[in-house]
């Protein structure tokens, strides 16, 4: 099937469409229903009657946007009517929810006259926290938005105008910097004079472009004052009329710095590109075919040509999804009365700044592992980059507060954490640890310091103030990689091949001489990053260590076990994963180290895992897992976790509830614990799960991760004498940064 048929099938699959409504409160009992509806619902209704603003506290209004259209200018299909526009409006709702956790009702109005759209939309103000106008033809869209902004006290935003303008503006900020030109002196030619073109021109003025340097062309040619005098132009086009000779697009493009196409495909030739000023910027936005193809424009001349399009298969995609979800997110969270120019400029500047930062591995993988680094082919973040939310929404919220558009004050220093919580429990949990790490950063050895991911992680760790990284590896090679990546920082580097390591070799010899290691062998081993890093941590020249990215787990774990060893109160190390679900966090152990632990080992693993949970501000409730429930099966295998639970309950150092042996569903389903096994020491479901052996632990956490939809953080190594963590081969930069934060907090607690 072709794309059209695939799309038809996609939308037709049961249930039809792309959205549904789900409940956010329990509705399982008669009491739940009496609270949700009659008679309990009368209380919040009465309160809202007394104070309309309480609707934001008692209802979904504050997170609800109305996507409203009359279907008069849908995509490239034109005026197809309200009913036919519904799949597009549903799609808009999907993007709001996917990227910014904003709920949407799509409203298709079967009206042709602007006055009718205005009246209907204004009447729905009690329902929504904001209005997103969509696919309404020009010039009707200008009148509708202007009137609604004047008459409504919630944000009204026509995305076809301002969304496009904001993303183009962000791209132009960076493109101008790359080609060494100032916004204030840029000459700009715009092809097209519809809603998006006029809004883009106005927004460029807000960013600093001189209005007199903007030449706009419609289908009849350059918009001039003579055409205004002749009565050919509406008031919106007339704002950009120039006192110059009439001509066509080719005339307008000659010697211009920037071309912005918001018209039709194929109207710009390579010759027209060659007529532009040196190092031109070309944003050819017509879809599906741009005004000039990406490669055509790039190859038209030999100097730097920065090209953007609306297509995802070329670099520098100008995509509105980079803007509207996050602009509304910031506006809704401060209960803004409008989305003003200051908020739009803040969004564009935030996007431009983000494109200059190192790109997460997950984003790179989503785009086929192509290099993504600030430059002519990367001037805008990618739509799937999760950081866009954390940069744009706070910038918009702050601008709303500073411009007096906000009705609610928020703590901007903690706002990012609230946003992270919206996108998943793992982000919320890691933020707890990373914030602790920043209060007292420690020195963390990155044993595989020549690896690109380790270098990028070192940069992020430094930039965020989480730790002071020490990279082990070839100094020149590390600096060369940093230059290639465009990372501007000055990390501490220890080069095992050339630096003086005698003291470390001597210490390694002292530690291992009765384990068969000679002095000569110690001198050789210390040139290995895993041994060198381990000795540095053991001697106190570093506080923690990360390794394992380039090694199999057992071989990476061996040197720290031999050199650092387990803690004074520990006989065993163990690997723990934190698994985060939408509303639940659990810690599972052992998933990486001990193949067949005995009862004493299981008890020790349970104690250390509970201590780890508290570093994440999680109060532990531990379950020793088995295929038996409290003696329902009695054999050597089930006695082992049963005895481990007894040992933990008898241990005066353990001050959290533990029980077992029990089956996995018993451990995590509160109704089972409260019903069938109400005698259990766990009054709530367990959040620390200790598996009976490595096989079960590894299988269990991977099933939960892959089929249960959990995010996994780890493995975190517990039981070591000093903080050491062994990464999994293939881990991403964010995993390294997260484990560095865990290691720093571990080191802080040991210091305390």
TrEMBL record:
Cofactor or coenzyme needed: Mn(2+); Mg(2+)
Sorted UniProt keywords: Metal-binding, Multifunctional enzyme, Oxidoreductase
Matching InterPro entries: Aminoacid_DH-like_N_sf, Malate_Decarboxylase, Malic_N_dom, Malic_N_dom_sf, Malic_NAD-bd, Malic_NAD-bd_bact_type, ME_PTA, NAD(P)-bd_dom_sf
GO biological process terms held by the UniProt record: malate metabolic process
Chain positions covered by the region annotation Disordered: 1-26
Pfam families linked to this entry: malic (PF00390), Malic_M (PF03949), PTA_PTB (PF01515)
Malic enzyme NAD-binding domain ranges (all copies): 161-401
Ranges of Basic and acidic residues composition bias in the record: 8-17
Domain annotation Malic enzyme N-terminal: ranges: 16-149
Highest taxon of source: Archaea
CDD domains recorded: NAD_bind_2_malic_enz (cd05311)
GO molecular function: acyltransferase activity; malic enzyme activity; metal ion binding; NAD binding; oxidoreductase activity, acting on the CH-OH group of donors, NAD or NADP as acceptor
Keyword Ribonucleoprotein in annotation: no
Family of the protein in this entry: In the N-terminal section; belongs to the malic enzymes family.
PANTHER family (UniProt xref): NADP-DEPENDENT MALIC ENZYME
Official protein name in the record: NADP-dependent malic enzyme
Species, as recorded: Haloplanus salinus
């Amino acid at each position: 099937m072709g794309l059209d048929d695939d799309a038809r099938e996609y939308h037709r699959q049961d249930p039809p469409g792309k959205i549904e409504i789900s409940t956010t409160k329990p509705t399982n009992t008669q009491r739940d229903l009496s609270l949700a509806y009659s008679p309990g619902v009368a209380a919040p209704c009465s309160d809202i009657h007394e104070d309309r603003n309480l609707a934001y506290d008692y209802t979904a209004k504050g997170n609800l946007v109305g996507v409203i259209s009359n279907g008069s200018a849908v995509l490239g299909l034109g005026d197809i009517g309200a009913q036919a526009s519904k799949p597009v409006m549903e799609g808009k709702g999907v993007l709001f929810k996917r990227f910014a956790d904003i709920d949407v009702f799509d409203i298709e109005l079967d009206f042709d006259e602007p006055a009718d759209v205005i009246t209907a939309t204004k009447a729905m103000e009690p329902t929504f926290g904001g209005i997103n106008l969509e696919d309404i033809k020009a010039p009707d869209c200008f009148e509708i938005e202007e009137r609604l902004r004047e008459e409504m006290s919630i944000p009204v935003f026509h995305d076809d105008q301002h969304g496009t303008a904001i993303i183009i503006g962000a791209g132009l900020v960076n493109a101008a910097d790359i080609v060494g030109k100032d916004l204030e002196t840029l000459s700009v030619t715009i092809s097209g004079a519809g809603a998006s073109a006029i809004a883009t021109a106005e927004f460029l003025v807000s960013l600093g472009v001189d209005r007199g340097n903007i030449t706009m062309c419609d289908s009849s040619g350059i918009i001039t004052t003579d055409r205004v005098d002749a009565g050919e132009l509406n008031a919106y086009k007339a704002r950009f009329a120039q006192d110059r000779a009439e001509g066509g697009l080719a005339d307008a493009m000659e010697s211009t710095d920037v071309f912005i196409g918001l018209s039709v495909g194929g109207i710009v030739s390579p010759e027209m590109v060659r007529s532009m000023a040196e190092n031109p910027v070309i944003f050819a936005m017509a879809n599906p075919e741009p005004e000039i193809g990406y490669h055509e424009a790039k190859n038209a001349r030999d100097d730097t040509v920065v090209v953007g399009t609306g297509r995802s298969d070329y670099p520098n995609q100008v995509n509105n999804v980079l803007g509207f979800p996050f602009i509304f997110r910031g506006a809704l969270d401060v209960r803004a009365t409008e989305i003003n120019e200051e908020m739009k400029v803040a969004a564009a500047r935030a996007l431009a700044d983000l494109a200059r930062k190192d790109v997460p591995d997950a984003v790179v993988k989503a785009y086929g592992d192509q290099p993504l680094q600030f430059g002519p082919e990367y001037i805008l973040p990618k739509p799937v980059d999760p950081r866009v939310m954390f940069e744009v929404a706070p910038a918009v919220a702050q601008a709303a507060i500073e411009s007096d558009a906000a009705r609610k004050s928020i703590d901007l220093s903690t706002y990012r954490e609230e946003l992270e919580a919206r996108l998943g429990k793992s982000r919320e949990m890691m933020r707890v640890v990373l914030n602790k790490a920043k209060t007292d950063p420690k020195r963390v050895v990155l044993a595989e310091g020549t690896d690109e991911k380790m270098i990028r992680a070192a940069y992020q760790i430094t930039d965020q103030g989480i730790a002071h990284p020490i990279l082990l590896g070839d100094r020149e090679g590390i600096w060369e990689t940093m230059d290639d990546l465009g990372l501007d920082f000055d990390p501490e580097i220890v080069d095992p091949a050339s630096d003086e390591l005698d003291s470390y070799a001597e210490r390694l010899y002292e530690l291992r001489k009765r384990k068969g290691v000679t002095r000569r062998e110690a001198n050789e081993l210390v040139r290995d990053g895993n041994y060198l890093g381990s000795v540095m941590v053991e001697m106190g020249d570093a506080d923690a260590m990360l390794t394992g990215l380039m090694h199999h787990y057992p071989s990476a774990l061996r040197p720290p076990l031999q050199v650092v060893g387990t803690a004074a109160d520990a006989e065993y190390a163990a690997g723990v994963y934190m698994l985060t679900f939408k509303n639940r966090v659990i810690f599972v152990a052992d998933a990486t180290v001990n193949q067949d632990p005995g009862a004493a080992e299981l008890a020790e693993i349970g104690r250390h895992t509970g201590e780890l949970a508290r570093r994440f501000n999680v109060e532990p409730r531990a379950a020793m897992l088995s295929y038996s429930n409290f003696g329902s099966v009695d054999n050597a295998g089930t006695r082992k976790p049963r005895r481990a639970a007894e040992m933990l309950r008898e241990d005066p150092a353990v001050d959290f509830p533990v029980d077992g042996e029990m089956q996995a569903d018993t451990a995590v389903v509160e109704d089972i614990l409260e019903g069938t096994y109400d005698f259990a020491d766990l009054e709530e479901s367990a959040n620390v799960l200790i598996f009976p052996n490595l096989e079960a632990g590894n299988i269990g956490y991977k099933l939960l991760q892959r089929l249960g939809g959990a995010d996994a953080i780890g493995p975190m190594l517990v039981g070591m004498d000093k903080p050491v963590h062994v990464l999994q081969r293939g881990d991403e930069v964010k995993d390294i940064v997260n484990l560095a934060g865990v290691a720093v907090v571990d080191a802080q607690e040991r210091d305390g």
